[in-house]
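Standup notes, structure subgroup. Blocker cleared on the iron/sulfur cluster input:
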Amino acid sequence: VAIPSSEGRKRVLSGMRPTGKLHLGNYMGALHNWVRLQDPYDCYFFIADWHALTTDYADPSQIPANTREVILDYLAAGLDPEGSVLFIQSHIPQHAEFHLLLSMITSIGWLERVPSYKEQQENLKDRDLSTYGFLGYPLLQAADILIYQPDYVPVGQDQAAHVELTREIARRFNQFYKRPDGSEILPEPQVLLTPSPKLPGTDGRKMSKSYGNTILLSDPEPEIRAKLKPMVTDPARVRRTDPGNPDKCPVGDLHKIFSSQETLAKVYDGCTTAGIGCIECKSWAADAIVQHLAPIQQRRTHFEQNPALVTEILADGDRRARARAEQTMQQVRSAMGLATTTPAGISESSPAV
Ligand code: SF4
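Run returned:
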């Protein structure tokens, strides 16, 4: 690592787009893991509001409110602003500068080959995504990552290709530019694969905002129970007397994640012998989820009621992130032959290596 982390600890960075209130899928797929990473690592977690513009540029009206909801969910889930740096991407202009500089060395072919480029264009047919910003978003992501010189980027399997592109860009940068002592500026970050259990939505498909099948971290108890009631189950259980199999049932998947071993044993026994009905089984799943979300919702209420505290947390995170990003940018500007600013505020040319 180019810059030693505080106390010599390894550094981790990850972020999410501001999509509004987060759901259990976001939690189990990322946030839950991030919370655990805070202990062993120096963590940077951000909200990628510029990334939201790559697809929502025509109507950005929801971005401020969505950003607010995501920061509340970050804090509610247990991200600790004392230890971790929590910040908003667009508050750190160095990301944009670095994106521009990295664009000088990035082949268009690399960006066109990112699998999500074509996929997203197919999926979001109602929008014109033939923009420069949309093509360049994996590069912006590379800038977001490399500017903090992290050791690890925790992502799900679907994002691993993006981190690979980031590594490729770091290698290309390091081929061209070095520190005056000849050492490399950008370490290649490693993927830290997030173990994400299968988390079905209420219709049995993957939980996703676009499917409208989510359970939000902030859903009140009656809402959670109401959402689980019509949830799809093992199709073999047509009648109450038909035995079923929790391994073939989305409700069974929820039990595996949230229920105690004792409840899980009752589910297997009751389901396979038709000893319990699905309504009862779903109410147990709801109990487990409600119990799991209780401390999260308590923390959310605390932060919702203290908006000044949230503003203070973000201001502190922005300040810490900016300091770290600027450290990298000073090395980058100097290595790329750009003017650097002296402490007296006078610009002078700094030669490339
Ligand atoms: S009893 Fe539970 S696990 Fe079995 S099919 Fe019904 S909801 Fe699914």
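Discussed briefly. The beta strands are 11-16, 42-47, 85-88, 152-155, 190-193, 340-341, 347-348.
Next: hand off to the docking folks.
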